[in-house]
Specification:
The complex is a heterodimer. By secondary structure, chain A is mainly alpha-helical. Chain A has two domains: 28-122, no CATH class; 141-360, MetI-like fold (Orthogonal Bundle). In chain A, 78% of the residues lie in helices and 0% in strands. Chain A has 16 helices and no strands. In chain A, α6 runs parallel beside α9 (223-247), α12 packs antiparallel against α15 (326-351) and α14 runs antiparallel to α15 (326-351). The termini of chain A are far apart. Mean pLDDT of chain A is 84; it is low at 356-361. Chain B folds into two domains: 4-228, 3-Layer(aba) Sandwich (Rossmann fold); 239-339, Nucleic acid-binding proteins (OB fold (Dihydrolipoamide Acetyltransferase, E2P)), CATH 2.40.50.140. Chain B is of the alpha+beta class. In chain B, the strands form four sheets. In chain B, strands 6-7-8-3-9-10 form a six-stranded mixed beta sheet, with helices on both faces. In chain B, β12 (250-253) and β13 form a beta hairpin. Classes of the chains: A mainly alpha, B alpha+beta. Chains A and B meet through α10 and α11 of A and β6 and α2 of B.
């Protein structure tokens, strides 16, 4: 009897106590997560909204004007959908339920959008993709003067610039980074510091000398000239990044490869390079995107319209005293952004590792 | 397989000397351990043998031929690093086949040899895995297989066991020894662990400060250490070293005077292994000041006329307690005498 009265009151409150503590911890975790999601949503708004608006304009604007009706209607559909999904994601940690919710919300959202603004959507602003001389069509022949090239020429030039940038930077940065990481040579410290200092200078200050040099060398107004200039200015940074990645590869592995019968070059190619794969991918993506988005140097050094790159094409589409056709500008923007966006989406897991490799040096 | 010889090897960099002077001959098929504390130049010596470093002075000979200028890849040396240095981008089989890529070995023949060596080191079922999917012991075996597949003249092991846990270390010790015996490959093991050296190698080379202190069997090093360094480095728990002063035929240690069997003069150190001192029979009176049970034996420290002497007794149970009075006895022939200034052992013994 006495034993019972002693035991029961102690055991039960303790058990209840654990439960309420657990409930409180769960609630707090949920609260923190919701606060975080809400914060991130709000902070990303100023970035996402303009892009969203850009896409909306490119599919809805007619005769050059811009209105926000469609944007707000679309927001009224998309934002609740995102919020509902966030709540589902937080409350139900089951993958199938989450996927199902995403699909259901996407279908509902798409249907709502189609019924609300479906009749306002059109492809007309994207006609620059198949009509070569688009400006002539919008304005009169007199203003444009038949000078506007097809977007595909600009696209090809941009692609050539970006791909060659990527290749040059990959080749030079990997070899130079390896050399600086592995070999002791006179002036190694100076090279390292010099590269950092060079990167700290605003490259813009070089624009006039570079223009003159290109003019004298005869590379002004050529893709090759811009390619060389950009590679020179960008390289120090990538060499530094690659050095960091090579620093993280242990010496033992190379020594082992060389006693196994490989030459230094074979050891580099067969054993070391595969281990800095992530670094190479990250450097390649960044180099590509840097060249793809380049504006200042191409604006200065490329003149004739057959040498235009995408950024120049965009500039000339939007530049006109007669008024701007924002529908087409937005459509060109979407077309221009798409390759970088795809590249980011597919390679983002490598890009986030770049800093890790860089720091380890 | 080859007979290896090092003649007057020295290695220095600007402002630092790693190896002062090494003269060493290793017979074909022998298993030699190079034992020494970190920074004594043992790994540098190993890398010179592998051809990664080239010696500043001296000659390296494989079967009597000078190989100083032969490149690492042509020396046909197998090496196992402390980190194993497996190629993470290749499977186990590709790792083992890697050395054969650079030799004129037929594909079928290579695969056969890889299988054979994999069976020998018992990693047959792991050939398709990546190094990151293996445990430490398995990685070790793969590294061994990769070093052996090219049938090396010389197998170099650089602290191969120090990244393994204690039980695995024990089994890998016997395993490496077994493989070495089966193939009869000349092997050099570099280690700072005396147990590893004594259990695996036929002969041990003790290095310190870029020089060889002594070379011999485990028994030689233990019973007749050439220098103070060897006496204190080999043996666990460490040897007692008691300071004394010798003149004519006697030696004064602390408050005791010992009779010498020969002539010696000057500052001396008397070396007594803890296991050769016993607390029984008649001898020097002493008082126990510390008791440290070590499992199978107990280590005591006792204050006596000789100074503080550590001694060991078998059995898990401590037979003496702190403050107990005992008498310490040892065979005079077990005591070692070292000249304090040169650090070398003297041939003089205590008189019985």
């Amino acid at each position: 009897m006495r034993v019972d009265t002693l035991e029961t009151p102690i055991a039960v409150p303790a058990w209840r106590g654990w439960q309420s503590l657990a409930r409180r911890a769960r609630l707090r975790r949920l609260g923190n997560q919701s606060a975080l999601v809400a914060f991130l949503l709000i902070v990303s708004m100023p970035i996402i909204l303009p892009y969203f608006w850009m896409v909306v304009i490119s599919f809805t604007a007619r005769s050059g004007g811009v209105s926000t009706d469609v944007l707000w209607t679309a927001c009224a559909v998309v934002i609740p959908a995102v919020l509902i999904y966030s709540v589902v994601h937080l409350m139900i940690p089951v993958k199938t339920v989450r996927v199902l919710a995403a699909i259901v919300l996407a279908v509902i959202g798409a249907t709502a959008l189609a019924s609300l603004v479906g009749d306002k959507l059109h492809w007309l602003n994207y006609r620059f993709l198949w009509r070569a001389n688009i400006i002539e069509e919008i304005r009169t022949k007199a203003t444009a003067g038949g000078q506007f090239p097809s977007v595909w020429i600009a696209f090809r030039n941009s692609l050539a610039l970006a791909v060659s940038q990527t290749l040059i930077i990959l080749a030079v940065a990997s070899l130079a980074g390896y050399y600086i990481s592995r070999f002791a040579f006179r002036g190694r410290e100076a090279v390292l510091q010099g590269m950092l200092v060079l990167h700290a200078f605003p490259a813009m200050t070089l624009i006039i000398p570079l223009f003159l040099i290109l003019h004298w060398v005869g590379l002004l107004d050529t893709i090759l000239g811009v390619m060389l200039v950009l590679a020179t200015i960008e390289l120090p940074f990538y060499v530094f990044v690659m050095k960091g990645f090579f620093d993280a590869v242990p010496w033992d592995i190379e020594m082992s490869a060389m006693t196994d019968g490989a030459t230094r070059r074979q050891a580099f190619r067969l054993v070391v390079l595969p281990q800095v794969r992530v670094g190479l991918i990250a450097v390649a993506v960044f180099a590509f995107i840097r060249a793809w988005e380049e504006y200042i140097f191409v604006r200065t050094m490329l003149i004739e319209n057959k040498n235009w790159v995408m950024s120049l094409y965009l500039f000339w589409v939007s530049d006109d005293i007669m008024g701007v056709d924002y529908g087409i500008v937005a459509a060109v923007c979407v077309f221009y952004v798409l390759p970088s966006l795809l590249l980011y989406v597919f390679c983002q897991k490598y890009l986030t590792q770049m800093t890790i490799g860089g720091i380890r040096g | 397989m080859a007979r290896i010889e090092l003649r007057g090897i020295r290695k220095s960099w600007v402002g630092a000397t790693a190896v002062e002077q090494i003269d060493l001959a290793i017979d074909d098929g022998a298993f030699v351990a190079v034992l020494g504390p970190s920074g004594c130049g043992k790994t540098t010596t190993l890398l010179m043998l592998a051809g990664i470093y080239s010696p500043t002075d001296g000659d390296i000979l494989f079967d009597g031929a000078r190989v100083n200028d032969v490149e690492s890849r042509d020396r046909n040396v197998g090496i196992v690093f402390q980190s194993y240095a497996l190629y993470p981008n290749m499977t186990v089989l590709e790792n083992i086949l890697f050395p054969l890529r650079f030799k004129k070995v037929e594909r079928g023949e290579g695969a056969r040899r890889a299988k054979e060596i994999a069976e020998l080191v018992r990693i047959g079922p792991l050939l398709d895995r990546r190094p990151s999917q293996l445990s430490g012991g398995q990685q070790q075996r793969v590294a061994l297989a990769r070093a052996l597949v090219k049938r090396p003249n010389l197998l170099l092991l650089d602290e191969p066991l120090s990244n393994l846990d204690a039980t695995l270390r024990l089994s890998m010790r016997t395993e490496i020894r077994r493989v070495q015996r089966e193939l009869g490959v000349t092997t050099i093991l570099v280690t700072h662990d005396q147990i590893e050296a004594t259990t695996m190698a036929d002969r041990i080379v003790v290095m310190n400060g870029g020089r060889i202190e002594q070379e011999g069997t485990a028994k030689d090093l233990y019973e007749r250490p050439a220098t103070l360094f060897v006496a204190s480095f080999v043996g666990s728990p460490p040897i007692n070293l008691l300071e004394g002063e010798a003149s004519e035929g006697s030696m004064k240690v602390h408050q005791a005077t010992l009779v010498l069997a020969g002539a010696a003069q000057g500052a001396m150190l008397l070396g007594l292994r803890p296991e050769s001192v016993r607390a029984e029979g008649s001898g020097t009176p002493a008082r126990i000041v510390a008791v440290e049970p070590m499992g199978r034996e107990v280590l005591y420290s006792a204050d006596s006329a000789l100074g503080v002497v550590r001694f060991m007794e078998a059995g898990a149970e401590a037979r003496h307690r702190e403050g107990d009075n005992v008498t310490l006895a040892y065979r005079p022939s077990d005591a070692l005498l070292f000249d304090k200034s040169s650090g070398r052992r003297l041939d003089v013994r205590l008189a019985s």
